[in-house]
From TrEMBL:
Coiled coil: 158-192
GO biological processes: proteolysis involved in protein catabolic process; regulation of ubiquitin-dependent protein catabolic process
Domain UBA: 374-414, 424-470, 489-529
Official protein name in the record: NEDD8 ultimate buster 1
Subcellular location: Nucleus
Assigned keywords, A-Z: Coiled coil, Nucleus, Repeat
Top-level taxonomic group: Eukaryota
Database matches in Pfam families: SASH1_Homeodomain (PF26285), UBA (PF00627), Ubiquitin_5 (PF18037)
Biased composition (Acidic residues): 563-585
One Gene Ontology cellular component annotation held by this UniProt entry: nucleus
Length: 615
């Protein structure tokens, strides 16, 4: 298959160079049948490529037929508005995987999916369609989704695992089709990621008791991210990890939608942010790898752009010649795995595009890195006997150029360093949580406490000053906007308490009305403002633009939505199961797949060289 793609690319290149138009005479007659001149052309190119003439003639005829089909389709689209969609079917099908479907662009995605299923023999709910690197949305028209004439559509099949079947019988006790299950899984993934991202954004969860996501730099320390971008980055990284989990299980058809969603969320982040971590570059490699393993690389029109982007991101993140990376980590041995994958994919793309020299160059680079990254299994066994994991052994040996003693020291030091960083980060999180609880104990809402601490860089005393100077922040609350527990008339007992503290009775009553009977907040605000209320403070809750808050005594409440909580817990747990424990999991690979693919494509390159020498 790869060799055929190479021949197609080379022949297309020759045709362009010679300015040959196969859809015109003498290669096509007036009845659109093949002309005799095509055989002479096949002889010329087969001699040039040192290939079988019949095979070359067959491929040129395929190119000619496709050109005629495209011309006919273009004319048909201009006159009738009926568009042509090039459909790429899954590799398992024995028939031609690239097919043409005609349709109007005003139909919905669901109607197109039905049409594809009916035309090519699929069960409708068992397939997903990817067009322009996005999942087809069933409820919108093709036109609304930017689908145009002559677009490429890739069909992904959904496979059902034994575990999924077991879940169906255990949880629902009734038969469900696989597509519904996968759709629920995708929705749970989205919900779980949103919950974890929200927890990280709020920073009010107990780090010992509640799972949450965090973003760290290459040393393992948390990165402060602007609130406007934090959630998008969290979702991007979450979808990426979910996609990588499917890649490890070789479930490429399910992995691709997750990776494309990750790409969408990464695009919402600023360029400067993406240059500080290598995640975005790794994602580009994973997307191209996924298309390649699906044998649908031709559906990814911007494969070269993605690979170049990955290379640029690595350079920005790691520095020229990996200088920044070596400065931070002390070595760059583990990251070479990423460059091996990059060079391999660049070699494959160039081979499929008919670029012999570039393909050979990149494949040889990948092969050289493969030799450098080879790990002696006996050395891994030695480290396993010392109590390290196989993953730690591989990463440690690559970081230390295969030296077992140095690798053991490196792994031990890294464990201690990470343990210290995690403890420090947890302690920071705990201190912030205690400060929020302290401010909440004074009557402020969680939201108000968060904002004040953020403005005060975590300093509790400064945060309290900010809240006292801006008493309107009290209305930044977490409760249901529909709930209004304000006290219309403050109790005489509360008024007397404030008068006893030395405040004027009328001012005390007004303050209690503003703070809905909260004596502590009223006293603090009056004391901070010299016995009076700030002039810009609304004298009634209705004057505030924020929704009314419940008093601290009423804020607890009980939730009757235990089922929703269980579903959220299940969604979060599913995400956590796929997030690797080791922070450098993405750098760990046995390279078995890469080794076989490099050998395969190098054999193609050697065949090309042999043919060139014969010429």
């Amino acid at each position: 298959m790869a060799q055929k793609k190479y021949l197609q690319a080379k022949l297309t290149q020759f045709l362009r160079e010679d300015r040959i138009q196969l859809w015109k005479p003498p290669y096509t007659d007036e009845n659109k049948k093949v002309g005799l001149a095509l055989k002479d052309l096949a002889k010329k190119y087969s001699d040039k490529l040192e290939c079988c003439e019949n095979e070359v003639e067959k491929i040129i005829e395929e190119i000619r037929c496709k050109a005629i089909e495209r011309g006919t389709g273009n004319e048909n689209y201009r006159t009738t508005g009926i568009a042509t969609i090039e459909v790429f079917l899954p590799p398992r099908l024995k028939k031609g995987r690239k097919n043409v479907l005609e349709t109007r662009l005003l139909i919905t995605g669901r109607e197109l999916r039905s049409k594809i299923a009916e035309t090519f023999g699929f069960q409708e709910n068992y397939i997903k369609i990817v067009i322009n690197k996005k999942q087809l949305q069933l409820g919108k028209t093709l036109e609304e989704q930017g689908v145009a004439h002559n677009v490429k559509a890739m069909v992904l099949e959904l496979n059902q695992s034994e575990e999924d079947v077991r879940k169906i019988f255990q949880l629902e006790e009734e038969e469900q089709n696989e597509a519904e299950l996968k759709e629920k899984q995708i929705q749970r993934t989205k919900r779980g990621l949103e919950i974890l991202a929200q927890r990280a954004a709020e920073t009010v969860v107990d780090p010992e008791m509640t799972p949450y996501l965090d973003i760290a730099n290459q040393t393992g320390r948390s990165i402060r991210i602007p609130a406007s971008e934090r959630k998008a980055l969290m979702l991007a990284m979450g979808y990426h990890e979910k996609g990588r989990a499917f890649l490890k299980r070789k479930e490429y058809g399910i992995a691709l939608p997750c990776l494309l969603d990750a790409d969408k969320y990464f695009c919402e982040c600023c360029r400067e942010l993406l240059d500080t971590v290598d995640n975005y570059a790794v994602l580009q490699l994973d997307i191209v790898w996924c298309y390649f393993r699906l044998e649908q690389l031709e559906c990814l029109d911007d494969a070269e752009k993605k690979l170049n982007l990955a290379q640029k991101c690595f350079k920005n993140c790691y520095g020229e010649n990996h200088q920044r990376l070596v400065h931070i980590k002390g070595n760059c041995g583990k990251e070479k795995v990423l460059f091996l994958r990059l060079y391999l994919l660049q070699g494959i793309r160039n081979y499929h595009s008919g670029n012999d020299v570039e393909a050979c160059e990149y494949l040889n680079k990948a092969h050289q890195l493969l030799k450098e990254l080879y790990i002696d299994p006996s050395k891994v066994d030695n480290l396993l006997q010392l109590g390290f994991t196989a993953q730690e052994a591989r990463l440690g040996l690559r970081a230390c150029d295969g030296n077992v003693d140095h690798a053991a020291t490196h792994i031990t030091n890294r464990r201690e360093e990470l343990a210290q960083i995690r403890n420090e980060e947890k302690e920071k999180k705990r201190r912030r949580l205690e400060n929020i609880r302290c401010l909440k104990g004074m009557g402020y809402s969680t939201h108000a406490a968060q904002q004040a601490l953020h403005a005060a860089s975590g300093n509790l005393d400064e945060a309290l000053k900010i809240l006292l100077s801006n008493p309107q922040m009290w209305w930044l609350n977490d409760s249901n906007p529909e709930t209004d527990n304000r006290q219309e008339s403050p109790s005489q007992e509360n008024i007397d308490q404030l008068v006893y503290m030395g405040f004027d009775a009328l001012v005390a009553e007004a303050a209690l009305r503003v703070f809905r009977g909260n004596v502590q907040l009223a006293a603090q605000t009056l004391a901070h403002n010299g016995g009076s209320l700030p002039p810009d403070l609304p004298l009634s809750p209705e004057d505030s633009l924020s929704p009314p808050a419940t008093s601290p005594s009423d804020s607890a409440g009980t939730s009757s939505a235990s089922t929703d909580e269980d579903m959220e817990t299940e969604a979060v747990n599913e995400i956590l199961e796929d997030i690797p424990e080791h922070e450098e999991d993405y750098l760990d690979s046995t390279l078995e797949d890469e080794e076989m693919i490099i050998a395969e494509y190098l054999s193609y390159v050697e065949n090309m060289k042999s043919a060139t020498k014969k010429n």
